[in-house]
Task: structure prediction
Amino acid sequence: MRQSIVICISGPSGAGKSSLMERSVELLEDAVSFYFDAYQSTLRFPDDLFERINRGEKVNPHEVRNDEFLRDLTQLHNGMEVTDPWNRKLMPAKFIIVEEPFGRLREGMDAIIHTSVCIDLPLEISLCRRMIRNLTYDYVNEPPQERLDRILNYVTSYHDFEGKAMRHLYEHLKLRSDLLLDGLKSKETIVQQLLEHLKEINQRQQ
Result:
């Protein structure tokens, strides 16, 4: 079987990556979605990550490892059926739409990705969308104080190190991306822009 075309989608929290992926899979004739979030339990960061960020050091994305993610994606890319940690049975397809927060930057990803797409969203908007989602969806069944505690913990973490790390990451991602999408535009516009990009890729492959 011919190898799949791997399309990587990256962008900050709240950028609309999942919506873009699922809508694109619906509209394409032969596509499958592959989620980084499904492999959170096998994600490995450097032990001293937070301390290094707080000292102002830059962390190489090669140090962020998820061997199971790369293994399954490679198998799917090569035409093999895989079952992800969410117990989704994924069948080989012409297009694999992959959620990968680090784009081409993690070790092993550049060799497998055909095109890298980054949703560009101001980080303050990303933070607002994350908090709105937490309040209205993620923690809606928890007692009010627990919901507030969770959000306070996240905002504190964002202030102390996550915001710095994201700013550094997305500066590099945008430079290494083949297509930059404006995350402030409507979902329909972003989907159409991605589909036009995939159409061009498909024509070059023929």
